[in-house]
What does this fold into?
Amino acid sequence: MGRIRREIEVVTGRRCWTLFDSGARYSYIARTAAAGLALQQLPSARQAVFGGQTHDVREVCIVPAEIEGHDLEFQAAVVDRIGRDEDSREIEILFGAIALQLFNIRLDPANEALDFSHFTAEFVEF
It folds into this structure.
């Protein structure tokens, strides 16, 4: 599974260190990075396991962001902390497979790049 790291800009003007990980189904955001976003309380808490830890998820939010000139929004579960990457940098957002698929963003691990050649900017619903 591919893992790419980038800074992305969240609509609040904050730049967040983001791990794009096709091996993670859902997206997550650290509570500090979610400051200023509208959080939605879940009816009951659920657990997520990643980074060798179990995380309690009690809230979710929509994250409007700009990634390499592309505007998009994705749902993320709010957790206290995601963890550190291989370079010991704190990960603020984990951008998972569902969000990657929704916008047709592909990972190019050989070049450590994001592939926006199939990016979906418009959705046609029937």
Notes: The chain has a mean pLDDT of 93. The chain has one domain: 3-115.
